[in-house]
Design brief:
alpha+beta, minor pseudopilin epsh fold, 2 domains, 5-stranded antiparallel sheet, 10 strands, about 35% helix, elongated
């Protein structure tokens, strides 16, 4: 009988070891899935939306001013606190930078159009936000690895930031000729 009790104890130990190994495997798979989703197109797009929302919320609460720089040449973004005024992108001081990120090959910037009608697909695009909201709204047009187009729309009037399918239409002011002046 002593042998049967010993066998039962060994079986229980084996089951516990298998349970612990299964738990570690599950945790590793969850972390790997999280890493892969962050590198996916939608993960990068939502990260950019969250960054814009964080800047707007922080500016409203603290009264500080922030700037999100979309850099086409580097396929990247930078969030900085505006402490030294308007400076060239390459002259930004290290203490002003809050976060930087690199887009992947799955996330391609097409162009940025502001709600004043200006647009760029080469020069860095600057979205500034302060206590009263966004200086300019606009859209960041991006494509995924399959060539599908999406727009990240920053609405300065409602302060909403959304991801929309396709190249979204945004309101831009009319020229004086179109208004009949």
């Amino acid at each position: 009988m002593c042998s049967a009790a010993r066998s039962g104890a060994i079986l229980a130990e084996i089951i516990m070891v298998l349970f612990i190994v299964a738990m570690f495997t599950m945790m590793t798979m969850m972390n790997l899935s999280d890493v892969l989703s962050r590198n996916s197109f939608k993960g990068k797009a939502y990260d950019l939306v969250k960054l814009c929302q964080m800047a707007a919320t922080s500016a409203a609460e603290t009264g500080r001013r922030y700037e999100i720089i979309i850099d086409f040449a580097q396929n990247s973004y930078t969030l900085r606190e505006i402490m030294t005024g308007l400076v060239a992108v390459e002259d930004i001081e290290e203490q002003e930078i809050i976060e930087t990120g690199q887009f992947s090959d799955r996330f391609q910037l097409s162009y940025v159009m502001f709600d004043d009608g200006e647009w760029t697909n080469e020069a860095p695009a600057l979205f500034r936000v302060g206590k009263t909201g966004w200086q300019y709204g606009g859209k960041i047009v991006i494509t995924d690895e399959n060539g599908k187009v999406y727009s990240i729309v920053i609405n300065r009037l409602s302060r909403m930031i959304n991801i929309l399918d396709g190249d979204a239409v945004i309101l831009v002011p009319r020229s004086e000729d179109e208004m009949g002046f």
